[in-house]
């Protein structure tokens, strides 16, 4: 019985002190909440700044990589045109047409990359995926066109 009475008294005392906050305590609690919110905002801003730096660095790195790939494609086109002299007339014309198409596509990709404006990380990821697909297509087509087919040479 003593334990029950003691527990009830302790509970009453605890509830009494919690629910009877003085105006000063309420003001202190409110100030603490404001401080916490400001700290949280500062942390969020630092994280956002860090994410933006990473996003910008990723864009610049990718632009450099694609510029190198586009230059490599241009180099391959020039080499394939030189090799084209050794092919029969009808195949030569067909290959030249295909090289012109691939050169145009390569130029379009270069312009697409140069004109891309930062528009959010999600859109950037989608752009990169589509751009990689297109770049791979041009590269594969150039490699396939460059395979020697001895029976078609002069």
Describe this structure in words.
86% of the residues lie in helices and 0% in strands. The chain is mostly helical and 154 residues long. It has a domain at 67-152. The longest helix has 61 residues, at 23-83.
In short:
By secondary structure, this protein is mainly α. Helix content is 86%, strand content 0%.
Largest sheet composition? none
Average pLDDT reading: 83
- Could you give the order of the helices and strands? HHHH
* Uncertain spans: none
Morphology call: rod-shaped
The total count of strands amounts to 0
Can you count the helices?
Answer: 4
Structural classification: mainly alpha
Helix content: over 70%
The value of Rg in angstroms is 34 Å
Name the quaternary structure: single chain
Percent in strands? under 5%
Q: Distance between the terminal alpha carbons, to the nearest Å?
A: 113 Å
């Amino acid at each position: 019985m003593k334990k029950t009475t003691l527990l009830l008294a302790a509970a009453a005392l605890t509830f009494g002190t919690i629910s009877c906050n003085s105006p000063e305590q309420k003001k202190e609690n409110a100030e603490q909440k404001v401080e916490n919110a400001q700290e949280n905002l500062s942390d969020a801003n630092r994280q956002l700044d860090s994410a933006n730096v990473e996003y910008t660095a990723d864009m610049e790195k990718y632009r450099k990589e694609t510029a190198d790939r586009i230059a490599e494609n241009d180099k391959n086109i020039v080499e394939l045109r030189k090799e084209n002299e050794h092919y029969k007339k009808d195949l030569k014309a067909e290959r030249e047409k295909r090289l012109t198409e691939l050169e145009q596509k390569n130029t379009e990709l270069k312009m697409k990359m140069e004109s891309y404006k930062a528009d959010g990380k999600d859109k950037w990821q989608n752009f990169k995926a589509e751009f990689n697909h297109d770049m791979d297509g041009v590269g594969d087509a150039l490699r396939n066109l460059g395979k020697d087919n001895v029976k078609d040479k002069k």
